Each structure stands twice: as C-alpha cells, then as structure tokens.
Amino acid sequence: MAVNRRRGEVSAIIDGTERRLCLTLGALAELEDAFAADNLGALAERFQSGRLSARDLIRIIGAGLRGGGAEVKDAEVERMRIDGAAAGAAALAAELLSAAFGSGEEAAGAGTANP
C-alpha cells in the first residue's frame, strides 16, 4: 500500500492486514478532546514526554485509523493485534505523531503561527 507521508499517512499491519492511518485535523481534534488539550501545541507537548499509557496508544491508533478512513471504535482497537505487540503499537503511535507534528522543534511549534 502506497502512503503519502507528506499528508501524514503511515501504514501498519494490524490484524494481519495492511492499513492506512493518518492523523487528520479531525483526528487531531478528537485527540485534543480525549486528552483535554486546549490546542495543538498543548497536544504536542503532552506527547513529547514520551510516556504514553496503553490507553493513550489505543486512542492515538484509533484516531489514526479513523483518519485513514476506517470505521472503528476504540473498543475494537483494544482487541486488534499489531505487529510487534506493545512495542509495535508504541512505534506506530510515534510514527503517526511524527508524521502529524514533525519532530523535535517542529512539534513544539505545532500550535503556533510562524511569521
């Protein structure tokens, strides 16, 4: 499956099937709500800590699947098998966040306008 990284798309093998995931603006708004973040900058700061719970991973991966076009609820994501198990889920979430926010300094400025 070809993905467009410039649009923030990533692919992953989930339940034995290659799937497209993307943190669209709608998916990011969903995550802002789930994590009680006031804006994208606050959301990026939350994720930069690198300390994500299993519940965080479910929310991020679920939002990415929905952003990629899947009709899936977080309760279904809880039961999905991701290549690499928990480490694979963490790597997938990190890849999604990197694709959406960039890395390092780019992520820190996600909620601010650049002159």
Fold topology:
Elements lengths: L8 E6 L2 E6 L2 H10 L5 H9 L5 H14 L6 H4 L7 H17 L3 H4 L7
Antiparallel strand pairs: 1-2
Helix pairs in contact: 1-3, 3-5
Descriptive key words:
single chain, 115 residues, mainly alpha, globular, disordered C terminus
Descriptive account of the structure:
A two-stranded antiparallel sheet has the order 1-2. 50% of the residues lie in helices and 10% in strands. The protein is built from 6 helices and 2 strands. The chain has helices at 25-34, 40-48, 54-67, 74-77, 85-101, 105-108, and strands at 9-14, 17-22. The protein has 115 residues and is mainly α. Strand 1 and strand 2 form a beta hairpin. The relative contact order is 0.20. The chain has one domain. Mean pLDDT is 87; it is low at 104-115.
Summarize it.
It contains six helices and two strands, in the order ββαααααα. It is mainly alpha-helical. The chain has one domain (5-102).
| Main β-sheet, spatial strand arrangement | 1-2
Give the distance, in angstroms, between the N- and C-terminal Cα atoms: 37 Å
What's the domain count? Answer: 1
How much β-strand is present in the residues?
A: 5-15%
- Low-confidence sequence ranges: 104-115
H and E string: EEHHHHHH
β-strand number? 2
Q: Indicate the structural class.
A: mainly alpha
Q: Using only CA atoms, what is the Rg?
A: 13 Å
Determine the mean pLDDT: 87
Q: Determine the number of helices (DSSP H or I, runs of at least 4 residues).
A: 6
What shape does the CA trace take? globular
Helix percentage: 40-55%
Largest sheet: 2 strands, antiparallel
Oligomer: single chain
